[in-house]
Amino acid sequence: MSNGASKRVTQRDVARAVGVTPATVSYALNGLPGVSDELRERIKAVADEMGFRPSRLAVGLRLGRTNTLGLLLPDVANPFYPELASGVIEGASAEGMQVFVAQVGLDGRDHAPAVSALVDSHCEGLLFTAVLPHDIPMLADLRARGVPFGFINRRIEGFDADWVGIDDFAAAKELTSLVLEGRQRVAVFGGPERSSVSAGRAAGARAALAAAGRTPLPDGMVGDLTRESGVERARALFDARGPVDLVVCGNDVIALGVMDVCHERGFAVPDDVAVTGFDDMSFASAGPLRLTTVEVPRQEMGRQAVASLRRRMLGFTGEPQVVELPYTVRRRNTA
Amino acid sequence: MSNGASKRVTQRDVARAVGVTPATVSYALNGLPGVSDELRERIKAVADEMGFRPSRLAVGLRLGRTNTLGLLLPDVANPFYPELASGVIEGASAEGMQVFVAQVGLDGRDHAPAVSALVDSHCEGLLFTAVLPHDIPMLADLRARGVPFGFINRRIEGFDADWVGIDDFAAAKELTSLVLEGRQRVAVFGGPERSSVSAGRAAGARAALAAAGRTPLPDGMVGDLTRESGVERARALFDARGPVDLVVCGNDVIALGVMDVCHERGFAVPDDVAVTGFDDMSFASAGPLRLTTVEVPRQEMGRQAVASLRRRMLGFTGEPQVVELPYTVRRRNTA
DNA sequence: CTGAAAGCGCTTACAG
DNA sequence: CTGAAAGCGCTTACAG
Fold first, then answer.
1. Are B99 and A100 spatial neighbours (Cβ–Cβ below 8 Å)?
2. Cross-strand pairs, A163
3. Which residues touch strand C (CB under 7 A)?
4. What distance in Å separates the CA atoms of residue A18 and residue A92, rounded to the nearest whole number?
5. Which of A250, A333, B13, B192 has its CA 20 to 30 A from that of B33?
6. Across the interface, do B57 and A54 touch by the CB < 8 Å criterion?
7. Per-block average pLDDT, block size 10, for chain A (335 residues)?
8. Interface with A, mutate which of B98, B269, B299, B309 (most A CBs under 10 A)
9. Shared fold status for A66-166+298-327 and A168-295
10. Cβ–Cβ below 8 Å for B2 and A144
11. Domain A11-54, CATH homologous superfamily name and number
């Protein structure tokens, strides 16, 4: 025993033990009519005792339904995604579904191989968290194959699909307006150029500035959503212009990088340089940090996305569903 | 088209298109002998053009090998685990394996249902990140069924299995000795009582104190690895004893909670109260935080665990493999 | 070099 | 109320 050989108990084993055919075991265990109560109980008891568990592979092959969903996550240096994933996994598990997690490149580069592997494994639905416009051909192909999918967080202009997220534009505008006050020299450190989320946040910040009759500094508007990128952009910015009044960042991680540089140069936050983040990651509220930011309901986004996807998997073919969740501006100590 | 019906192209479709039997398609695509080069190329071309991809379900059922691995993660409020997961997913994907991710309760409670679902799906190996001693019966059952598994991070005293982690005892001892200096009143805020990792870290801290002829304060030794727990324990501690000299925390998240309370009470860190963390999570090095902690190679732990597990899946039956990775003590500004 | 057949573990009409 | 048969999509001995 325990020689590595599969010790799986099959339906047939149970059938033999009880003295019926496998079909009867199937009927009994799946609660279909046509089996006497007494026999059903006996089969259940034997199955339990033998530790029989139907093979999901066999059931999936036979039924053409696997109860499996695929989740595509970009590189997890960004703590935004794990919490999204947690919501997805929790929501899926509550519905008896399993989740294959695949990783795509930073910022969502190179979805194709991951999607292919997921489809090969009969995922019945896919959830994308970091789509970019160049993914459209792949998505169109997916749609043609009849594989349901949904977007979380990012979406693609002009390519409709179920989506769950927040109003990034409104949130960024509100945050920026709130902290703008008299600050004149304002930099906006956005995320990747083609990310709908980053674009929305940057546009919101610019709109707030415009409403106050100001324009942002042209420095560092586009970059990765990483701390390193925040550091590099902040250094370049401060080298060129000294301590500016406010840096509006595309997420909390960039803001961390900016604060690193403020610390390194001895600029007081927010007195010399005010900084805002976005997402309200767990560390943002920490005592020594107290980052001013926007809380995004990441777990809830994941859960809602599963709910939408499940409807599709069950055959719903209506218009793309848009779920816009509430956000909360958190004004703390950095702006 | 696109009515939700499965648009899967099967081997048989390809066979029909080429005018051969499905078996020939299988031989051709899998590079087996017995197919002329010319025919093989033609079959490959047609398969590609039709977008044929073998069903992993069918292949898995037929071969009894699914190339799938299951990863069990506790509640992801703790950023420790996503980075571990990233290493696992990356390592698996490099080997052509897919990863089912399942979530278990906080601190690893209630593994059983998740394990069961993973085994039902024919995962060929399981990776546990937060085992507890009471999981032994479940693990023994797994072993009896011939399902290979490995531990990352936590392990179980007296239950040998492949394990990847660091020497938590040595690391905690080194860190504590380094920052101890003249500090007399020292609290050790550990993690869950039965976690091998938390136990090792706490023991290491106590050993360092003992070596200096000191004993830790009895307050808050056991608790969850959460910020809330850090907050609660710090409040109770400071209520009872005022600002102690040093709080050695079981991880960075607890330390964050302690620093929240220092901030709230106006205690300067490290001058009034020194604080150490453990793990070196990304936020730990942030300018305003500069937490003194121990860097744990989380991604690498995940990758190595996949390598060990893969050997088992390929039939290796030798002694349990123990992989102890190097850690790095990071002395920054909080102690 | 190619084809027909069995079988992985299930489910579900269809007969009895 | 129960059993025999077909089939989901593959792979692999086994004949030809």
1. yes
2. A151, A322
3. A 6, 8, 10-12, 22-23, 26-27, 29-30, 32, 34, 52-55, 57-59, 61-63; B 20-24, 27, 33-37, 39, 58, 61-62, 64
4. 35
5. B13
6. no
7. 59 92 92 88 93 94 94 86 94 95 85 94 96 94 93 96 98 98 97 95 98 96 95 98 97 96 96 97 91 97 97 92 98 96
8. B98
9. yes
10. yes
11. lambda repressor-like DNA-binding domains (1.10.260.40)
